[in-house]
Each structure stands twice: as C-alpha cells, then as structure tokens.
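Honest question from a wet-lab person: if I give you the sequences of every part of a complex, can you actually get the arrangement of the whole thing, not just the pieces? Trying it with mine:
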Amino acid sequence: MERSFNLFSPIDYRYSVEELKKYLSEEAFIKYKAKVEASLAKVLLKRKFISEKIYREIVEAVENISPEEVYEEEKRIKHDIRALVNCIRKRVSEEAKPYIHLFATSYDIVDTANVMRYRDAVENVILPDMIRLEKIWMEISLRYKDTLQIGRTHGQHAEPITFGFSIALYVHRWGERIVRVKEAKENLKGKFSGAVGAYNSLSIFFENPEEFEMDVLSELGLKPAEISTQIVPPEPVADFFHSIITSFGVLANFADDMRHLQRSEIGEVGEAFEEKQVGSSTMPQKKNPVNFENIKSMWKAILPRILTVYMDQISEHQRDLTNSCSQRFLPEILVAFDSSVRRMIRISEKLQVDAENMEKNFKMSEFKIIAEPLYIFLAVSGHPDAHEYVRGKVMECMREKKSLYKLVMEDESVKPYIDKIDERQKEILRNPSKYTGISSKKAEKIVNLWKERLSI
Amino acid sequence: MERSFNLFSPIDYRYSVEELKKYLSEEAFIKYKAKVEASLAKVLLKRKFISEKIYREIVEAVENISPEEVYEEEKRIKHDIRALVNCIRKRVSEEAKPYIHLFATSYDIVDTANVMRYRDAVENVILPDMIRLEKIWMEISLRYKDTLQIGRTHGQHAEPITFGFSIALYVHRWGERIVRVKEAKENLKGKFSGAVGAYNSLSIFFENPEEFEMDVLSELGLKPAEISTQIVPPEPVADFFHSIITSFGVLANFADDMRHLQRSEIGEVGEAFEEKQVGSSTMPQKKNPVNFENIKSMWKAILPRILTVYMDQISEHQRDLTNSCSQRFLPEILVAFDSSVRRMIRISEKLQVDAENMEKNFKMSEFKIIAEPLYIFLAVSGHPDAHEYVRGKVMECMREKKSLYKLVMEDESVKPYIDKIDERQKEILRNPSKYTGISSKKAEKIVNLWKERLSI
Amino acid sequence: MERSFNLFSPIDYRYSVEELKKYLSEEAFIKYKAKVEASLAKVLLKRKFISEKIYREIVEAVENISPEEVYEEEKRIKHDIRALVNCIRKRVSEEAKPYIHLFATSYDIVDTANVMRYRDAVENVILPDMIRLEKIWMEISLRYKDTLQIGRTHGQHAEPITFGFSIALYVHRWGERIVRVKEAKENLKGKFSGAVGAYNSLSIFFENPEEFEMDVLSELGLKPAEISTQIVPPEPVADFFHSIITSFGVLANFADDMRHLQRSEIGEVGEAFEEKQVGSSTMPQKKNPVNFENIKSMWKAILPRILTVYMDQISEHQRDLTNSCSQRFLPEILVAFDSSVRRMIRISEKLQVDAENMEKNFKMSEFKIIAEPLYIFLAVSGHPDAHEYVRGKVMECMREKKSLYKLVMEDESVKPYIDKIDERQKEILRNPSKYTGISSKKAEKIVNLWKERLSI
Amino acid sequence: MERSFNLFSPIDYRYSVEELKKYLSEEAFIKYKAKVEASLAKVLLKRKFISEKIYREIVEAVENISPEEVYEEEKRIKHDIRALVNCIRKRVSEEAKPYIHLFATSYDIVDTANVMRYRDAVENVILPDMIRLEKIWMEISLRYKDTLQIGRTHGQHAEPITFGFSIALYVHRWGERIVRVKEAKENLKGKFSGAVGAYNSLSIFFENPEEFEMDVLSELGLKPAEISTQIVPPEPVADFFHSIITSFGVLANFADDMRHLQRSEIGEVGEAFEEKQVGSSTMPQKKNPVNFENIKSMWKAILPRILTVYMDQISEHQRDLTNSCSQRFLPEILVAFDSSVRRMIRISEKLQVDAENMEKNFKMSEFKIIAEPLYIFLAVSGHPDAHEYVRGKVMECMREKKSLYKLVMEDESVKPYIDKIDERQKEILRNPSKYTGISSKKAEKIVNLWKERLSI
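Yes, you can. This is the full assembly:
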C-alpha cells in the first residue's frame, strides 16, 4: 500500500485498514452504487423490459466506471447520482440509455449501496476480526484461570479473584457484542420505492411494485424496508452503529484496565516491547502502554459521532438532504473501530502477564482482605453487629499495625462466635489467597459458553 | 399531586409523570432496593439459613423503611446501602440482625433494583403509552389514507402521496421501536455475585452459589448476568437506553414534520387550540405549534445524555464508582421520554388536518410534478435522453410560464415517443393527483402489519 | 490538485480545502514539528551551545525532511517524534547529532507545532474567509434593508420586519464569532518545559530555563503556557475549538433559515442554480437547497466532536497518552468548518432574493398582524383588558372571515379607546407594512458597527 | 432545608445547593421574570407613561406573586408568561392593568430574567466557591512545594517533581477558568426589543426605542444585545456554559488524578475518612475515594449537556420555540457544577498527603530515572548517539538487575564523555531526588501569579 501524507484525515494517513478499502472507500462506494444500477437492469431483463443485449451492455458499463469520471461529471452537473448515471449512459448504446436508473431515485441507489457495503465490511472483515480477538481473550482467560489477582473496586484492593476471571468478563461482554453486531447487520434494509417512497412511477408499469423492489434487492442479498420515503427509515442504521459503538466501549474499558495494571507501582501486565522500540523521545528508560492508550484515545475520538447518527434520525417530510454529507463520515467509524480491534489483537496476543507482581500486590492487602469473610463468618455465627465490629477492628489493626486475624482471634468478647467458625473457614482466614470464590470455574464456564454460542 | 416550585429540575416541577413515581422516584428506588434485601431473606429462608420468624421480621421491616430515615443514617455513616441495611437492622430482633444483607455487596442490591424498576416502569407505563400512541397514529393513517398531499423532499414539492401514507411511516418506525424497547427491557439482567463478582463469600456456604443468585433474582422476576464484577456488565443497560433514545428520535421527527406543516404558508396540520389558550403574550393572533416544539426541545435536552451511558461502559477493574452519581440521572431520561409520549398522544388525538390546504399546496406544483412521469414515459418509449430533455423543458416552462404538459405535447421533436405513451399514462400527465403510487394501499398494509405484530 | 478516491475520509476525497494543506495536512504537521526543532537549534546557537556551522546543518536537515522517511523510521522504532529526530540526525554530522532535540520532550515539539499550525491556518485562511463572508452578508443586509418581510416566530407569521434586518442578525453573530476566534487563536500557548514540565534537564544547564523556553517559542511567534506538564494545559485549545464550533452553529442556523425560506410554499430566497445543474436524479423539475443542506449536514457531522476536546481535558498526572490519537482528528474540524464557510460564501454571493414572494407572504397575514399594535394602542388608551379583547376579536374574525380592523372599528364597546388612537397609529392599522419598527435603521447600524469593529 | 424524596431528579433530592435556590429554582425564576416586569414599569414611570401610584401598585403586585398561582393560571391559558402577566394584572387596579407587560414580548422577560439569574448565581455563589477552592489549592501547592513526588507520564514513572508543583498546575488551570467564567458572565446580554426584535410597537411611541430598552435593562444591571430577534443571540449563553463546562473538566481531571494516587499500590493521597464512615457494605476494610469518584461521575453526567446548548444555537427565523423546554434544564448545569465545587472544597481541605509513600514510590524507579539526565549529559558532552546508547544500557540493567549509574560509569567506551560531566551533574546522577528542576520555584511563582491576577 502506498500512502499519501498530503491528507488531513488520520483515518487515511495513519489508521487505515487496507482490507476495508474495497467496501468503505469512496471508490468502493461508487462501485457499490453501480452494482445497484446493475441489479435494476437485471430485474428489467427478467421482466422483459430490456433485452439480454442491453442488459449485458449495462453490466459491462457498470463494471468499468471509475470514480474519476463520476467526479468529473458531477463537477459539471452538481449531482452525484445523476453523474454516475450519465457515466453509465455514455458507455452504452442509444437503445440502452433510457433504461439506466429507470424508476429509481438517487437514494434507492445510495441507501441500498450503503447498507450493502456496511454488511460486506462487517461480514468479511470486522466480524472475523472481532471473533479473532474473542478467541485470544478466551485463551488468556483459560491460561490464567488460576492465577491469583487481587480484585479491585474504587482502585482499592477488595477481594481476591483470578486474572482469568477478570478476562472472562471481557470474553462475555465482547461475545454479546459480536451477537449484537451480527443481528444489527442482518437487520439493515434497502429500498427501491422511488422519489417519495410510494412507488409512484413503478406502480404505473407494474401491478406489484413492491415485488419489483424485492427483486432488485434480493439480487443484492438484501430485504426492503417495509415502508420508506425517499430514504430508508433511519433506525436500523442507528441500531447498527450503536452495536459498533458499544463494542468500542468494551475495547476502551479493556484498554483502560490494562493501562492501569501496567502502572509502575502495579506492574501486573505489560505491552510487549520490541527490541528497537523507543518509549520516550527524551527518557530512554520508558515503556509506555502506548497501544492501550491509543485505543482509549480512538474511542474518545469516535464515540461522540454516534450523536450524528441520532441527529440524522430527523429528516423533514419525505426527507431533507441534511443527512447526506453527515452520512459520508459513517464508514470512518467502522474503519476506526476495526483498526482498534486489530491493534487490540496485536497487543493481546503478546500480552505480558506478571503473576509474581500479582501475587506481590495481593500480599500487600492480605491482612485486610479477610475483613469480609470474617464479618460474614461472625454474622452467620450469630454476631448481631458483625460488620460494625469488624470495621472497628480494621481501624484498630491499621493504627496498631497488627494482624486483623490475630486481633480478632484473641478478642474474648467474640469468642462464642469464633468458636462456631469451622475449620474450612478458619483456613480461609489464615490463607486468604483461597478466598477467590468460583473465579476459576466461572472463567472456564464463560469461555465454554461463548465457544458454543459463537460456534468457534 | 401537590407540587413544589422550590426545585431546580423541570423534570419534577414541570414535566413530571405521576404514574412513574412509584418506579422511578428516589423514594421508589429505596423501596426497590429494600425489595432485593427481602428477596435475599426469602432465599435464606428456603435454604433454612433463617427461620420463618426471622424472615417475617425482615419482610415487615423492609416494608416500613422510609427514605427520610435512610438519608438520615447515610448522613451519619456516608454510605447509602449500608444506611439502608442499618435501618432494616434497627427494626428487627438481635437474632435477625446478622442476616440482613448477608453475602450481598451494595451493587447486588443497587444494580438489581435499578433494572427491576426500569422494567416495571416500561411494562406498566411506558410501553402502554407507546402502544396508545401507535394506535392513534394508526387511526390517523387510515383516516387519511386517500387524502392527497404533495410529497416533499428538500422542503420542495416532489411527487404526490397521501397524508395517511406519510403517517404510516411513523406507524412503522414507532412499531419497530416498541419491539426494540420490549426486547431491551427483557434483556436487562440483575446480579447477586458479591463484592468482585466471584461469589467469594457465598461459595463458602453453598455448593452452587450461582443457583443461590438465580433464586434471589427469580423471586424478583429477573435473570442474572452470565458473569458480573461488583456490577452487572453495562451493555444491556446501554442497549436499553439506546432503544429509548431512538424512540425519542422518532417522536422528534414527527414533531418537526408537523411543526413545518403548520407553518403559516403551508397550513396542512395544526395543533388543536383551546378556547382560552393564549398564543403569544403580545401577539393575540398567534397559534403556535407549542407542543410539537416542546417535544423537539425535550429531545434536544435529553439526547446528549446517551453519551453518559456510553461513557459509563468504562469502569476500572472490578468497578470504580464513577458510574454511581451519573446513573442516578438515568430515570430522568425515562420520565422525559414518557412525558413527551403523553404530550404526543394528547396532540395527535386532536390533530387538525386541513385537507383543503393540502389540495391547495398540491395544486401549486401540479404543473411541475408531471416532470418525473413524463421523463419516465419518454424513457420507456425509447427516448435516449429523456431526463435531460424534460429538465430543459421545465426550465423553459418556468421562464415562459407555460404548462409543461402542453409544451411537450406540442413539441414535434418528441412526437414519436409521445405516441407510444398510453392513455392511462396520459391521464396521469393530465391529472397528476392520481400519481400517488400505492400510497393508500401501503398505509393500510403497514397499519395491518403492526396491528398483527403488536397484537393490538 | 489531483485527488485520490481510494480513501475513507470525505474530508480528503470530497470536502478538502487546498489552501489548508500547508498547515493542517500530516505532511505539514511534520514540517511544523521540524520547525520547532530548528527553533531549538537557533536558541542553542544564541546561547553558544552550538556553532553557526552546526546550526546551519540542522536547519538544512530540518528543511529537507520528508514524511515518508519519518513514517518509515517510525515503523522501525514505534515512536513518532524520535523517528523525526532520527531522520534529522541522519542528515547531520557526528558533531551536530547530540544537539538535535536536546532538552526537549516529544510534546514540547508536538503541542507547540499544533498551536502554531492552528494559528497559521486561522490567520491565513480561516479568518480571511470568515471576513469575506461577513462582508457579503453586510452587503445583503444593506441591499435589502427596506425589503418588507414577514417576521416569523414558531414558523408562524408574527410582525413585519425587513429582509435586511433578518440578515443583520447574522452579521452581528458572525462578527462576534470572528472576534472570538481571533482572541482564542491568540491565546494558544506553546511549551518547552521538558518531560514533566519542571524543566528538569534544562535547569541543570541554564540559570533561567523559563527564559530558554520563552526564546524557543518567540522564534515561532508564540508564548509559553505559564505552567505545563508534559503537555500544555488543555483549556486554551478547548476555548479555541469552542470558538470554531459556535461559529459553525451560526452558519448552520443561517443555512436552516434559508432552507426553509426556499420551501416551495414560501419561495423567498433560493440558491442560484447553474444551467447544467441537476436537481434530482429522477425529478427533472427539482431545485433543491443542496448547499444549505450540506452546511447543516456538515455541522451535524462535526458538532459532536467538540466532546472529544472536552474529554481530552482529562489527562492523568503529568499526562497520559489518551489524547494523542484523538488530537490528530482536530485539524479535520478546521477543514470541515472552512469548507462550509467557503460554500456559504459561494451561495451567499449569488443568493436569489424574491421580494415579490416576500410581499405575497406578508399579505397572507396582513389582516392578523395588526392584532399586536391594536392591542397595544387600546392598552395605552386605557383599555383594561386589551390583549384578551383583541384575542377574542381575532377568533371572531377568523371564524367570520372578516377584517380585524373593520370588526374593531365598528365595535361600539371599545369606541372610547379607539377615539384616543392617533392618526399615525391608525395609519399603521390600515397599512401594517409600515409596522416594521426600526428594522431598516438597525440593519444599517449593525453593519456599520461591525465594519468599524473589524476594520473592514 | 426539608427534603422530598418523591422526586425524580438527583439534583433536587441529593445534590442540591441551598444557596442557589434563590437564583435558580423555578420559584426564583418566576420572581426574576416579575422583576423584569417591574423594571418595565419603572421606565414607564420615568417616561411619564404611568403615574407613581400605578407604578407602586405594579411593584407591590410583582413582589407578591407566587409560583402556585402562576402555574394555576398557566394551566388555564397554556402560556407561561401571559399567566404571569394575568397574575400581576389581577392584583392591580383597572387603571393600572393596561400597563403590565406593555410593549413586551414573552422573551423580553424570559431571556432577560435568565441572564440575570445566571449572573447573580455566579456572582454570589459560584465564583466565591471557585475562589475558595483556588485558595485551598494554593495552600496545598505551597505546603508541598518541596515534597518529592515522582512525575508520571503514561502512568509510568518519568522524572521527579514535587507534589506542590503538580497542584500548581491546577491552581493555574482553575485560575484561568475563574477569569473565563467571570468574563462570560459579564458578557451576558438581555433584550427588550419586542416580538421579532425590531421594536415594532415601541418605535411607535418612542423616538428612540433602543434607549427605552437600555433603560429597562440598566435598571437590572444589564446591557442589551446589539441586535436581537424574539430572543437574544445564543452565543453569549453558549460561551458562558462553555466556561462552566471547561471548569468542570478541570475538577474532573483533579479528581481523576487523586483517585489514582489513592490506589492501594500508590497511596500518595487519600480522602479523609470520618470515624463513623463506612467504606463498603460488605467489606469493612475499604476506604474508597468516593468523593473524587462522585465528582468524576457528575462530570460524566453533565458534560454531554453542553451539546444541547450548541444545538440551541439554531432557532428558525425570528425564533422557534424548540429552545424553550431545553433551556429550562440549564440551571441544573450550574447547580451540579457548584455542588461538585463544594464537594471538592470539602475534600481538598482535608486532603491527606502521604509524603512517605511519595518517597517510597520515587525510590522504586530511582535507578531508572537518571536515564534522562544521563543521556543529556552524554549528549552535551558530545556523544553522537547518547539516547540510543542509554536506552541500550537501561535494557541491560533491567536484564541484569544492575545499577544504571554503575553500569555506565564503568563502561570504558563512554569514558571520554563521562569525564566531561561536571560534579554538580554527577551529584544528580547519584542522587536523582535532586532532579526536580524548578518544581518548587514554579509552584510558588504560579501561586503568586494567581493571587495577584485574582486579587485574592
């Protein structure tokens, strides 16, 4: 891929995804629109409106359209779809000319082409990428399902879990999003109902213009919206971008978690660093979580754009054109997202996990962690105010730097309750690293659940 | 309902929905949280952890909690859920005290209470309201299915439709949103998995802590998230508010359409005006679309809040608390939305439709409207450049203020094509009010489709 | 300008502004960053840290850097600024090498380069464009300062104004924004304070490291932030983009106003249409306000991006990198804005104003418009309930299709008050087209005000 | 303050600021609107349009209006301002009635009342609160100006600073925002130009209607917009809320910094914890940064609302009403912000700073920190590739767990450069805690700068 830097958009000069070009570039868009015109010709052929010869002429013309000529023509006549039509017309015989774009309005072409290319980009690139990441996270979750980690709430040490369990959460959230993206993609609809959606011209020539529409779209693997105006109803597209944006949110959360686990004081995970990689232009010692930071940053750049999608739900009467320019920016959301998925794949594949540091961090709070089980054991043993009692003891042990376990075990006032605590429970108080609940089992269960649901 | 005006929030002093108070007010929230505590007691009873007597004590205590006492206690100890727990504890015997909130973490209670009240508000108030509006729009669509209206694109007269057809679009979009809201509501999940989601304490006492969780939630009619941390995964809630926000977008679009159709120069629809109603404080003649404007305005106030939902997808590690305050604002979205649905019901019920003005506006452009069918007839008749030919003729007829039909009929150069146009087509050229495609039929079809899909 | 269509971003393939490339393209960015490195060399020379010879070497190297080589090197070492530094180093002697980037951290270069190019883009392209538009709107305002137009509130006819008055509002709002953009641009600050902002390395070699910073920046026409971390404080940049986004809002409002005034039923203004221009791909008769629609649409695409700027106010401790990728998208805001300003210039220059239609629309409501002056005249004459009285009469005259003036003049019950209305006032009741207040004078005054304030 | 919990809005039931009620509650709003009506009466008196007696009647009436009666009347006539006017009218003599609201349109009252109360809330509560916080941060900055802290970039240890320096950044950013809020508040403008802004009715009775407007507003301490329609131009209000939202961003960043510095592994700062305070409902040992989390969370809830302000820049023609409902939510932004400022004051006042932990964390990276000065010393000593050399040595010392200083000092290959490093520099390499640049001095300088600029 050759690259230009005389560009404004980082999507193109820096975060591009080559494989998406054939669906989401402007060149691709024009080809997709031309395909819709070809599909129309096919239906005209089937309805014997045009001859096989004319049909072939049109198909050939359509396949040879270049974006340059369309833009050139648009400059002259100031209408993008008519420009495309004219370019096709130029390439066919006089006899074929009348049938180009016949019965169609611009947005029969544009809206249909858009959902088609969104669908193809998702099916061929984005979903496979999402699934690839899911698999990597599954592996990590399984690999570390028994690796002790201190669970953190409010940035504070809470109760122990395993690293595999904390990753399993992402396996689940990402799995759900994969399903949502798939559903939303399948729910995208096309249209071929004419200038105001009432099949005004089609209905003069065909008994059942909705059948005509169905035919044009099924050639393209699409279904028509049950009703449309000049444009398709905007909600399926909004649902679709919602599915993408919420998927991006899962990435961003993962990235944030890892960024913080890579903090100098925590050091539980790290981005792999290449031999030649420079961390800072002035501090030669730095190893920064630059890729996790990049994903979070991209999310901040892209998230607000969902608002454009929501604002574009409003179009006056049978449509105004104020969603036209804004829609042209939507493919960027897909590219930015996929670019971040791929980055996440790269760094997840080589994620460095430091089980020693996890253990070390856990140890820091070992003595305090037993406060919860202790409170619960006392409560179950019948202590009427166990939470408050333990809270007081924690304060005391922090002041006096004593072991909470010892302090309580030696406290005569709670002896009757202590005596009811059984051995297995006492073992946990002595060795809180066993207090990980069903972390390991759950990690396995979740991974299996999604293996099955996604058939991967 | 008595009202206070010593408040900051218009949601309370002005746009309140009384029926939603028992689900979405702060008082209701506390009651819902208490219900989760009661459900826990029920499961403890079933597992024979507590006696019937203790269970009854707890249930009674839970039913009598007042928000005032909880807030009073919170002021003392600075923790909202522990305050609630303390208030319940105060009302039960020493013997019962240890079992309150046992095994639970705050967000087992909070997240579960929230999805429960969202669900109840939707099932009992919001969906019924949405369906009521759907029915009204269905009626309007059917009533005016044959009422001629000029279709508008870009604010410009395009092709004719019927008013019922234009409303049918909203019947469809709104119907789809009803389905989406219903699905999203059903997908909301609770949790009872403890402080970091690994069932740390539960797993010590119960072989199958996930079953315990399932039981607590099924008492409340909920299912647990497949995996959670201290909080439930945020995506189902994001999907839910997406369904609400996109529904709001449909309302806003309808409101905008009507606002413009009520413009002085257009006058096709109008909000009913009461005898005593004042339109302007200084212009006694004014009749403004104030309710449609209000709905659009409310949408502008509420739409951006979806971003908070998306930002709250990010919570560090097993959770940070930066989604706590922000979540408290989410019920307002539901109230504002329902308040606008109800307003839309009121004005849609009495919508004034001026078929005469619709006809008059249609007539304005009658002579130009035939340009499309004319171009298509010529094209189908074999004219190789029909679009450009007609475009030229339109320019000419506007300059010379002549009838397009006449101009073309008299043009010798296109006679061969004209001759191929059949009578039924010529009739449309002479009487373009017949050029409404399948508007009427489609309106009927869409209404029937949604009657069936929603079983209403 | 040759264009590529194998791109995702409409900013580059469709809405590009050639003149901005030398400030805001990636290529330009690299050149700007290199300039900061050169400025550093200049100061090292002045401080006699390096020789004239070394300085010249560096300057020459800096001027010859190509983006391709920098990206090539970045691929190897994964650090953009170090890549730039290496590329400069490669081009200089061993002796000069140590002084490249000496004392600098990456963001001394990046943040400084960014504010510099924003400033230059604004000074050289955007502000001149804004002023050009201001002048065109001034002309329109003056040209039509006496052209009667019905003022509209709520889309309803209210009181008469002049078209020039309605444009004067935009002259004023736009003028204010020009001032705001200018101020915000001047308040942008650079930095040269090192890795964490404390001049850690500089302070070892220089008594007054802040003076060193000042020197590096004044070479570039900038001032340093009073304090910085690794990055400059984000607020001046936020203020700057706020000034741009609110300017865009004024454009969008203007566009919306014109779109609606171009509605078929209103027809007061129109975008000029070229001879060859096509309005619709299927409706040859259409003349749509496509440029006004485009501007509104671009605003919807760009507005939400301000949120990224606000989110980027947060950077952890002495900075995290989560603002790096997101910042790369900021130049697009400037390009999109300027592209819309230029579009607005093109269509404003040729704005078609239809004074006849304005008059016709005014006439529609002439009879109702006098309600306000009538109510006020009666009130001033002492009628205790004039507003309610007139409101009733308006209702009556609408029911009975009578003239409001006649109805009131003939009403004996108000005769005592009528008699107090003087001749000049009665003239207004008879000829409400004179009821335009100080529209004309105000238009003139506002235009003169801004001519003076902007010295244009 | 008694509180109701039968409310939806957390702004009222939970985050209320009592002192703001007299400016920003609905009750206050009605009083402010009544004040504008009184001001009009004052000007009518001065112009001898009404007698002193009538004026007194009006003033007395205005002072006694209750929100309940206004809402009651609005229910009847569906117009909020006319309802207010009617309520005043009811309380005055027949003779006085005609002069209530004379010449005014609703938004002369509403827009003027709004900017007045925003101004008063800012002047009397918000700015004093902001300044109080500024002083507290100043104190902290000075108190810890020499307290060593490791500077962090990317969450990684970078170069040392002092804690006072890191706070000084916030002193500066907050100081700048105070100035911005003050300016924006002073730039808010009122209006009294009538229904479409052309002084249509006023101009019939007064030679200079702009002077009349000026008078009405100067009674209220305001200036008129240079030109208005039915409403004031929206930009000054947008600038104002921008100043508030960006101030909120500074709070949010501070909160985030502290949250992370309070992490279990870092422990450099902490929120003061009260004796009775509970950290977790189930984990008695927890001390969470709940107030910092709350501020960040409130910011996430409020930030997106700025978009409503930007969307409300668009109002069709002389205005549509779609900004009316949305504007009613704006005071909530001020309350939420001030509530967070006050929370920040409370926790900043008692901020616990753990200098020991700061030192301990610094020590962790001491050996790596010298990489930057080392590279620079070598570079200045003429080493042609010092950055790369040191980067390699850091890798080596991490692999071999050796001291970087030792490793380099013993490396014969760089001896010639080492020899050029002077004693003061070597001292830094041996004792990097001295490598804090001008941290301490800068903290002092910034505090003094803002003491002076704000005269506090």
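Two things worth pointing out. The mean pLDDT of chain A is 95. Chain A has three domains: 16-99, 106-190+226-268+286-358, 371-434.
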